[in-house]
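Review form for a predicted model. The reviewer records the input and the model, then writes brief findings.
Reviewer: anonymous (R2)
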Amino acid sequence: MKGVFWAKLTDPRQLLDRVDPRFERIFADHVTLQPKVELTAAMQRLLGRKTRAHVRADAWNDHVQALEVVLEPEIAALCVNEHPHITVSSDGTPPKRANDMLAGEHDSRPCDFWVDLELQFKAFR
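Model under review:
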């Protein structure tokens, strides 16, 4: 079974109370750790585990907005994204474009707060 292994916000209000979405389409609910993967036994053992992420910057370009996050070391080791983040909003651009935005030119402002996460696997339909 393929799906996405992610760290889901336990309460998206922790984020949306501190950051205003810049675009109409709002996501603001998870950190993707591994997209399009099979659920492994190692992942399965971690499902339901609580963790936290430190939000250090609100970043955006003309199409997408994301929060740069620092994950706990054990969880960061599982993340395949070069720039772990929470996609906040977009203009209709696919949320995965936040990776490209963070790797290229973008605007940003510093942030300093924590969000609570839970490790989950969402199977594709």
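Findings: The chain is about 15% helix and 50% strand.
Further findings: Strands lie at 2-9, 25-26, 30-38, 50-60, 64-71, 85-90, 107-123.
Recommendation: see findings above.
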